[in-house]
Amino acid sequence: MKQSGSIIIGLLLTALPIEIQAQQGFVHQRSTEYQWPEEKGVLEKLDQWQDLKFGVLFHWGLYSIPGIVESWSICSEDVDWIPRDSTIAYEDYKKSYYKLIEKFNPTDFNPDQWADVTKVAGMKYMLFTTKHHDGFNLFNTKQTDFSITNSAFKNNPKADVAKYVFEAFRQKDFMVGAYFSKPDWHCEYYWWPRYATPTRNVNYNINRHPDRWESFQKFTYNQIEELMSNYGKLNILWLDGGWVAAPRQDIKMDSIAKMARSHQSDILIVDRTIHGKYENYQTPERSIPEKQLNYPWESCIPLSPDWGWTPNAKFKSANTVIADLIEVVAKGGNLLLGVGPTPKGVIQPEVVAILKEIGQWLKVNGEGIYGTRITPNYNSNNVWFTASKDGNKLYALYVPNEKEGLPKSIEWENNIPVKSSAMVLLKTGKKVKWAQKGNKVLVNLPGALKTNKEPLVFSFKLQK
């Protein structure tokens, strides 16, 4: 039954339960191979990025208003993790979703708060979603009217939100990056209204309509050039939508990359899941690789079950995030934590509290995280290991069982400290007693830590 536009929008604004949203099943896996960049400057920036370890990814857009699984609800694929009211005809739903541009009015938009909160959390780099798959642009593009500068927020002095987000984070010394969706479901050169849109892919035969696809290539190129030339210094171009790739959906990455680096020298290009010279680091999603990897990668994991803001979200605890960070770093990667600002444009108090707790831990224990590199024996039970960049110091990062608390002592195999050197617990800055039993190390924990449930970090010199 056809509903009126106002009724449909009203239904759209009624978010589905978080349990349904948590079932999201589509995630980007990582490539099975890695190709190191050849450019000296890119390699140097990649090494700097590997030092940072902890970043933040902001998903924010029209989908934030109803609080649903990003913009996936306008994709008509029949999967249970895409929430959509089945009583509404699909085309009517899609039109209603696009009309949310008339309601997107984040009057409390405060990028300085975003930067302050994540700085306190110990994060060192950021990615901002300039455009998700729905094609709604959070920057001032000249290629389409479907942008925040033509939304209900258009008369606000900070309507070009990308500009102010990037500036706020540069002022806090973050490495700054732009997330950009290669597919664009609002662009008529990608989803042609002449045909239905049964999947996330381009909905016409490119071989039969090469001129239309060429128009999409130009549209994509021009939008990325706007980002590269109008928004100050950018360090990362993070391209989502791995199904848009050669040979079937070729957007001419050689041309895009050449243009991007003509404006932003040595920018890291992350063409997700597309193995080759433009996947400068890999991005396994919602997961951590099973084994250590000796090339650059980043686990992107949201703080809640979803990337964007959702009502009544169940957030991970600070200790859970810290445990993930420890495992990721010990395996050679960075952790990119997803945070969804509210529809009004701020980070909500519950998230602020969690991020502050993470930052307090990193302020004491960050020596074992930032600037470290992998070590061959990187895990023994619930103890993980990292090495200082010069290789002179090893860190043992113990993740306790939160339900059980701390034991009187912990042990690990291999990674035997130099007998004449001290082992220091970073939390107290004091030496701890330890003993070697064969290839095992036994460490006595101070009694004052009995109620501690957060991970502990020990530093020592390794016996060679």
Shape: globular
Helix content: 25-40%
Q: State the strand order across the main sheet.
A: 5-4-3-2-1-7-6
What value does the average pLDDT take?
Answer: 92
Total helical elements: 10
The main β sheet shows up as: 7 strands, parallel
The rounded distance between the terminal residues' Cα atoms is 74 Å
Series of H and E elements: HHHEHHEHEHEHEEHEHEEEEEEEEE
Proportion of residues in β-strands? 15-25%
What structural class do helix, strand and pairing data support?
alpha/beta
The number of distinct β-strands equals: 16
The radius of gyration computed from the alpha-carbon positions, rounded to a whole number of angstroms, is 24 Å
Low-confidence regions: 1-11, 13-25
Molecular structure report:
The radius of gyration is 24 Å and the shape is globular. It starts with a helix and ends with a strand. Helices cover 25% and strands 16% of the residues. With 464 residues, the protein is an alpha/beta fold. A 7-stranded parallel beta sheet has the order 5-4-3-2-1-7-6, with helices on both faces. The protein has a 6-stranded antiparallel beta sheet with strand order 8-9-10-16-12-13, covered by helices on one side.
Short description:
With 464 residues, this protein is α/β, with parallel strands linked by helices. It is 25% helix and 16% strand. The chain is globular and about 75 Å long.
